[in-house]
Amino acid sequence: MEDQFAQLVSLLGSTVRLAVPLVLCALAGLFAERSGVVDIGLEGKMLAGAFAAASAAFWLQSAWAGLGAAMLVSTGFALVHGFACITHRGNQVVAGMALNVLAVGLTAVLAFAWFQEGGKTPALGDGARFRPIELPFAAEIGAIPYIGPFYARLVSGHNVLVYIAAALVPAAAFVVFRTRFGLRLRAVGENPHAVDTAGISVASLRYKAMLASGLLCGIAGAYLSVAQSASFLREMTAGKGFLALAALIFGKWMPVPTLLACLLFAFADALQGRLQGVALPGIGVVPVQAIQALPYLLTVLLLAGFVGKAHAPRASGIPFSKEK
Question: What is the DSSP code string of 133-157?
């Protein structure tokens, strides 16, 4: 029984770690989409942030420098997106996809040019990446049956970005639903003309939302390359930005339901890693490709069943123009 409980705790611990980039990206999308900007570019901003983090951490031998570089580069991508969609009223979906394509190509080219390691960055040493943190009394409490492994392996033992991501969920909920900025943000996503009539700049609010999106995607990218991994790999985001967007839709653009959706997708991802090569009763060994598709299959099934019941902000995807 204790062995089974330990396996369950290990699975839940993996779920938490895999959920972090999804949660951060989903919060980034929450700010952007609540302001009326469809943020398809989450994937590209996270990928660019991952490359910037790994590069800066390698050169400066500092994980915090990598985090700062990731946030800076990702914010730059977000401002480019905003310039195309807000200032020039371009198609938001097309601009977001263009950012994704740009990030994939640019990170690969720069990685080849700077490091000559097949499109990846050199491995980072312990000082250049975020290491797990042991919380107080983890060793002592860990000896207690059931409660101990839960605290020592599920609550303790994560790197600092995991705890930052956990703190950002209630912080984002407070900002969006309990502050004047959040009220205006939600208003501009529903009726930007009413906001403009009240003398509030629609463009300014949407740019602030894109800044928040860029910063959060930067943290997510840094987590992938200098916390979860020890280097940047080509296209290492592997669709996580799109999964985060799906979680945001499934969560109906609300922080807590979106968090739960991210955890569900991460649980499916953690589970597929443990099912590979395992013979299932009455089925046998399932092909690896089918197991790896489990998180994405779950995403499709959930969205097919629930997306019709989710209503996006009414002005989402619609460029604002004072002339109308």
Answer: BPPTTHHHHTTSTTHHHIIIIIISS
Residue 310: CB atoms within 10 A of its CB come to 15
The Cα–Cα gap between 251 and 182 comes to: 18
pTM above 0.70, yes or no: yes
Residue 127 resides in a domain:
yes
Task: Please say whether the beta carbons of 95 and 79 come within 8 A.
Answer: no
Amino acid at position 193, single letter = H
Residues 5, 8: Cα–Cα separation, whole Å? 5
Per-residue pLDDT of the chain (324 residues; tens, 9 = 90+): 556 777 788 888 889 999 999 999 999 999 999 999 999 999 999 999 999 999 999 999 999 999 999 999 999 999 999 999 999 988 999 999 999 999 999 999 999 999 988 888 999 988 899 998 888 877 777 677 777 777 777 888 899 999 999 999 999 999 999 999 999 999 999 999 999 888 899 999 999 999 999 999 999 999 999 999 999 999 899 889 999 998 998 888 999 999 999 998 898 888 877 776 666 666 666 666 666 677 777 777 766 665 556 677 888 888 887 764
Give me the count of residues in the chain.
Answer: 324
Given a contact cutoff of 8 angstroms between Cβ atoms, the answer to whether 52 and 300 are in contact is no
The SS3 assignment for 173 reads helix
Which domain, by its residues, includes 209?
2-241
Q: Is residue 207 part of a domain?
A: yes
Residue 37 domain-assigned? yes
Q: Read off the tokens for 320.
A: 């604002």
The verdict on residue 270 lying in a domain is: no
5: CB partners within 8 A, 6+ apart: 146, 149
d(Cα 293, Cα 289) in Å, to the nearest integer? 6
Cβ–Cβ < 8 Å for 240, 295 = no
Q: Note the Cα 55 to chain centre separation in Å.
A: 20
Number of domains in the chain: 1
